[in-house]
Amino acid sequence: MDTPLSTIAVVGLGTMGTGIAEVLALAGREVIGIDISEAAALGAVASFEASTARAVGRGRITEEERAAALARFRTADTLQAAADAELVIEVVPESYEIKQQVFRELDAVVPPTTILATGTNALSVTRLAAESQRPERVLGLHFFNPAPAMKLVEVVSSVLTAPPAVEAVTALARELGKEPVAVGDRPGFVADGLLFGYLNQAAAMYEANYASREDIDAAMKLGCGLPMGPLALLDLIGIDTARTVLEAMYAESHDRLHAPAPILGQLSSAGLTGRKAGRGFYTYDAPGGQDVVPDALTPAAGAEAGAGRAVASVGVAGSGTMASGIAEVFAKAGYGVVLAARTQEKADLAKGRIAKSLERSVSKGRLSAEARDETLARITAAGSLDAFAEVDLAVEAVAEDLEIKQQLFAALDKVCRPGAVLATTTSSLPVVAIARATARPEDVIGMHFFNPAPAMKLVEVVRTVLTADDVHATVRAVCAKIRKHPVDCGDRAGFIVNALLFPYLNNAIKMVEQHYASLDDIDAAMKLGGGYPMGPFELLDVVGLDVSLAIEKVLHKEFRDPGLAPAPLLEHLVAAGCLGRKTGRGFREYARR
């Protein structure tokens, strides 16, 4: 099976097949594109011509290189054309029946040394290989869309695959400028295995009317740095495709997190499969269009829920990084800020942290010296909550402990004037339980900032069943003034971001526990295949494994879903004191500073 893989056939000339063929031809391979549809073949040629013309225009390739690549690509309408191929990559529809038929026909056409690769992301490679006369040469080669741009390629081995076949396609992937990740045969592999569970939960969250589609997508983009929100991504992938992948995952895992949300089936049955149909979770300008157009669910521009209360001064309780960051945000926006800690010394240290932050902004040219001085002058450091007597909005940012927060709110209830809005920054505790510590729960709301508060644009605005309408309107208006993007959600564990993020992180840990893939391969897969700014294990070590475990426990307790139970490996690491970067060791080891 020692072959240079210089002649390669691609079966199925849809978007993915065309992209793979383009990558191969530009890398010097002879490529035979095979599709029973003449229109698909013509479309593939036209797409290749157009994309290479753009590449020439942008200076990425020369006209001579373009001409040579186009000459290396030819199309055919029968599998007989693959007779001389050393590698065949099939990317036909996700159906066992269709793919198995392709493999059976290829057995009668290609020589024994030809490697047969399936591009499936949902079906069993082992089951497909078992249908072949030579299963040892069958493997998975999962490119990501768009193939010319995405760097990740998952190389999938079954228990039947011969190592030389894996080595040959792995070497090919590297020669194509891709990052190959070796994985075993399970539905979704690494990237889709983690991604689709997250997408499914987002769909279920929307179906439950917990948050709007716009707020769910904005929360995950702004709170996690993702290039696209989950519902918009489902529309791009195809809602029917996503449901097929989830069905395959659930059939193997029986994990309720993989059981397709009913709305996915309803939209698929109605033909509302996303961008390709012109409508899915969103409505688009045309079938296959990219531009979202307003529909009946689009929020009216500028529509806010009534008038709020006047806010001129803000109290921030706490002395940690989050408290000082929030105080800085409000002071920059022109509010008078009282920063209160348990002692005057702690309050002064917190204000000093703000001064250093502002100085860094000046040194980087983001802030003038005059604005720095004005901002700092708006902040009063205080060693007691008594300084909150006249503030219009009090925001707590103390330890994530229900008893501590309840005690603080009981104190704020006595100190703050009637009509003041009281906000908690909790990320996992029930806001209503905090509100009930006061005699005015209607004035209490959640304002979940993200760390670092001066940089992160998202604020989750959490209403309880007792929160007054004008309190909600007040916080929305305040968010606009401090230039943050508010998203509305109800008072349940994890709100939007953590409720979607931490099950994904937990599932990544389970993959390592099961020895399915390495830390490095999983991190690479999610960065290269999912567009995540950090891999799950990088992120876990930054957040802190103890913090992550606490959030996982809260989610599991609230939703009672066995799939949300914290991974034992996470519990073991926390018990051993391996908490991530802050202790020098978590999932990885770090140099002590």
TrEMBL record:
InterPro entries (UniProt xref): 3-OHacyl-CoA_DH_NAD-bd (IPR006176), 3HC_DH_C (IPR006108), 6-PGluconate_DH-like_C_sf (IPR008927), 6PGD_dom2 (IPR013328), NAD(P)-bd_dom_sf (IPR036291)
Top-level taxon of origin: Bacteria
Keywords: Oxidoreductase
Pathway(s) per entry: Lipid metabolism; butanoate metabolism
EC number: 1.1.1.35
Annotated family: Belongs to the 3-hydroxyacyl-CoA dehydrogenase family.
Protein name: 3-hydroxyacyl-CoA dehydrogenase family protein
Lineage: Bacteria, Bacillati, Actinomycetota, Actinomycetes, Kitasatosporales
